[in-house]
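Hi F.,

I've been meaning to write this up properly since the lab meeting, where we talked about keeping a consistent format for the predictions we share between groups. The idea is simple: the sequence comes first, exactly as it goes in, then the structure tokens exactly as they come out, then a line or two of notes. No screenshots and no reformatting. I'm using this chain as the first example so we have something concrete to point to.
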Amino acid sequence: MDSERKRPGDENGVPLRAGQIGRHRLTSAGRIARILAFAFGGTLILQGCDGTTYPPYRYKETVVVETPQGIRTGSTVIEVRMYKEGQSNPFARGAIHGQFKGEAAEVDLPNGRALFALLTSPSNYGWAKGAYQMLAQLTPEEMAQPYDPDNTGFDIQYRRAMALKGPQILPRMMPSAAPSHEPVSAYPWLVTFGNMTDPTSVRAVDPDNLAASFGHGYKLRAIVLEKTDEPVGARIQKALVWLNDYRARNSRLDGDTSVAIKSNDLKSNLSSGDFWVESY
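Output, unedited:
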């Protein structure tokens, strides 16, 4: 795995099973996952010899914003690869591990500001690796099937996602994995900067109220995903000139390089890996 992105299987540090992709809530365990991810150079994965390696794929994410001067868009390409544990690993049989590389989507706005759609979400540190498969969620009937140690539900979900053709609008909300829970956001973290050269000026943007961050007339129209053969880009470090330095120092946006997350402030919870993952 890459040095700047250290990803547990989900926000609880447990490898994903079918139907779990994109169905997470912000929890204390999620903060623990971020702490562990920040501390170590990669997730230790005990892989057996009979597991399944799925073909890597790329998808383009396009963020569409309505502004007083018309529609503005920003796109990025993300590459994903997945692996499922086999029977030779009895402690993790059927567990899904994912990796990805790419960068946040940037939308340049006519007021001189920029909107960034990150690789992570408030409740799912591995949002980018599961985003495309959110488009092919299992049905309630499929989710209700008895426990399957080989996790064949993931294969159904993966094939269904790979069969999608053309642009797909990412739903605003996704059903929770637990029937008793409310739907959860399917969107990545949206942020902006008061000053693009100052990482501590990062601010969260409400996807349902862009006007609160950018003024009257700004509205998020859609986030669109589409499979592509286009290469993964490397442009964001030109917009965020401090990104390479923060990546080299393994620093959060508040400048802190310690393991512990000391504050709930956004700048204390984001790092370079939320914006850019160069390699697996």
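Notes:
The CA atoms of residues 78 and 102 lie 5 Å apart.
Residues 1-27, 39-47 have pLDDT under 50 and may be disordered.

If this format works for you, I'll send the rest the same way.

G.
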